[in-house]
Amino acid sequence: MTIKGFRFSAVEAAIKKPGRLDLALIFSDVPAQVAAVFTTNKVQAAPVMLSRDRAKNGSARAVLVNSGNANACTGDQGMRDALSCGRRTAEILGLPDEELLIASTGVIGQQLPMDRFRAGIQPLVDGLGSSTLDDVAAAIMTTDTFAKIERRTGQAGGVSYQIEGVAKGAGMIQPNMATMLSFLVTDAAIEPALLKSAFGEAVEGSFNAITVDGDMSTNDTALLIANGAAGNPTIKTGTPEAAQFVDLLQEIMLSLAKQIVKDGEGATKFVTVKVRGAASNADAKKAALAVANSLLVKTAFFGQDANWGRIIAALGYSGAQLEQGRVEISFDDVVMAKDGIFAGGNAEAAGTEVLKKPEFTVAIDLHLGAGEGAVYTSDLSYDYVRINADYRT
Amino acid sequence: MTIKGFRFSAVEAAIKKPGRLDLALIFSDVPAQVAAVFTTNKVQAAPVMLSRDRAKNGSARAVLVNSGNANACTGDQGMRDALSCGRRTAEILGLPDEELLIASTGVIGQQLPMDRFRAGIQPLVDGLGSSTLDDVAAAIMTTDTFAKIERRTGQAGGVSYQIEGVAKGAGMIQPNMATMLSFLVTDAAIEPALLKSAFGEAVEGSFNAITVDGDMSTNDTALLIANGAAGNPTIKTGTPEAAQFVDLLQEIMLSLAKQIVKDGEGATKFVTVKVRGAASNADAKKAALAVANSLLVKTAFFGQDANWGRIIAALGYSGAQLEQGRVEISFDDVVMAKDGIFAGGNAEAAGTEVLKKPEFTVAIDLHLGAGEGAVYTSDLSYDYVRINADYRT
User: What's this model's pTM, rounded to 2 decimal places?
Assistant: First the structure.
C-alpha cells in the first residue's frame, strides 16, 4: 500500500559534484507530529542545532536534506546558510520556517555551495510527488553502496496504516548516533507521547546498538514524522495497537540499522555480539560494545581467526563487571571458552568454520546476573582503510 | 659504561616456534628494590597476578620473561605452570620464590608448552652474564620489528650510575598499559619511596601516553629494579640528584614509549597529539586520546589527508569540556582551524605537506583553561589490518 499524505522529492544539485541525487525533500500535506534524536557530540553541525530547536515543539511538516556537505564546523556562516536554505524552501511550500527541519551529511568544515544549493530548491519543491521515498534514500547516500529503506503495514481500528523509513550510514557509525541519518514517516494517527516513547525505545535497540568504527559524528539525525492521514482511530498508550506500532517501528529501524552495518565501510562480515549474564543491561551493552569496537577483534573477524582471547581481553577492559573465571564465549553454537579458559576439543576448527560465514553471532555469557544486550557490527578490512584514507579525494 | 651488579640471559626455548630467542632472565647479584605497574584489564594473565602480588613488598632480584605465549586465560593450570617455572628458576638461582617476578607475552588462551619452557630454564640460568640487555630486548619481541632499548648515565655524590631499559609493544597498545612489557634496571642507590614515585610519574607521561589501536592487554607489565651496586650515596627525595634521576628515567621511558609507537603494527607515521587550553590536564589527555584513537583520524593520517573535521569531531565526543567555536587545530605550525572553522588561505595545501612527513604534531588549543597533555600515536594502514588478520597463522 501507499503511505497517505506524504510526498517526496529528490534532485541533483551538485552539492559536492554532479551526477547524482543529493538534495531531497519530505513533505506532509497535513500538519504532523515529529519525534527526533540527534548526535550527542559536543561539536554539532548547523542543521543539527537548528532542527533540534525546531523539533522541540513536537510538530513538523517537512524535512530538507542534502548529502555532499555536512555544514559542520562552518560557524556563523554555516548557520546563516542553513537558515537561508530552510527559509527559501518553507516559503515556496507556504510553511512557517519552524515547520521545516534540515539535515546534512558529507565533508566537515567546508561552507555550503550556496549558489547550487539555492538553485536546487525550486526544482526540488516542484518535484514533490514525482519522486519516491526510494529516491530520498538514494539522495542521502555518501559512501553507502546501497540505498537503505524499509516498510511495514499496521492496523488500528480496522484501518491500515503505513510506516516507512530510510537511512544512510557507512562510516563513523557508533552508538548514540553516528554519521547516520534516518527519516521515518507514518500516516498513522498516534498519541504524541506514545510516538515519542516508541521512537526513543526503537532508537536504543537499533541505531544506538550498531557500531562500525567507534567514531561519532557531528550530524546524526533521526526523525519520525506522523501525520495521521491514514484516518485510523488514534493509537493510544497501553493498547494492543500501541504494541503493534512499537513492534513494527522497531522492526523497520532494526532492519535499517543492520543494513547500515552490512554496508559498513569495507565490511565483509555482519556480526551480532550478544551478551547475557551481565550484572545489568547497561553492563551487557558496555561489554558488547567493547568487543564490537576492538580493532583486534574486528581484524580477527576479517582474518577468520577464532581468536577468542582478543574477545575476553576486550571484555576485561570494557568497564563491565566481570569475573574472568566465569566468562563463556561462543561463535554461533560453538563454545570457544568456558570458565574463562579454552573449551578445548574441536572448538578451534569448528569456531573457524563459523567465522568463515558472512554472518554469525558472538554469544557471551558473563554468568554474573540477568543483564543482557546485543550490538551489531562489522569486521575491519583493508577496504575500510582504503575508503577512509581516500574519502575526500 | 656498564651497569653494575646485573646479569642477563636469553635463550631459545621454542615456546611458540623455534628459531628465535624467547626466554630471558634479568638477575641482580645483590638484593634490590622494585617498582612495578601492571595492566588494569580485569582479565589478567597468571604471571601478572603472581608478579603483582610479589612486587608488593618492594623487593625483587630476578625477572623471568617469555614471549610466544601470554599464559592468559589459562585458568588454574596457567597459574600452576607460572608458579612451577618460577620455582624451578628461583631454585637454581638460590632465591626465595618471592624474589623472582614473571612476565609473559604472546597468544592468549593457550597453555604454556611446559616441557620446552622447563627445558629452557637451566641453560637460561647458565647463560647469565654471557647475554646482554640487548638480547633480552630481542627475546621479548612478538610482532615488534626492532628491539627497543635505551640507556642513560647519571651522577650522584660524584659517583656515576646507570639506568637501562627495554620494552616490547607493537600491537594492543593503549594507555593504562597495553601488551607492553618494559623492564628497567638501575645500579643507583635510591630511596624506595622516590623510586616508586619517580616510576609512577614516568609511566604516566610515557607508557600511559601512547596508543596504537585502543586495545588494552591482559599482560602489561613494567618493572624498575634498583640494586644500588653503583655505590653512590643514596639519592633522596627533594635533592638535585633526585630531580636528575627522575629526568633520566623519564627520558628513557619516553624514548621506549615512542619506539613502541614507531613500531606500531603497520605504522607509517609517528604523530604527537598535543592539547592545551583544556579545562584540566585530565580533560586534555581525554581529548588527545580520542583524537589519537579515532579510526577516521588515523586512516586520514595514513592517507595524508588534512581532514581536520575528523579531529574536531573526535574532540566533540571525547568527553572533554569544549566550546566548538573556540577550537584551534594546527598541523605542526600550519593553523588548519581557528574558532572552530576552517582557517582558510593556504591551510589545506600547507597542512597536506605536513602530513606527508613521517613525523608531525597535531596541536590543539581548546582555549578554555590551562590544562595540557600529549599523546603519541601512529596512523592506521593496510598493514595493521594484514598483521592482525594473520597474527596467529
Answer: 0.83
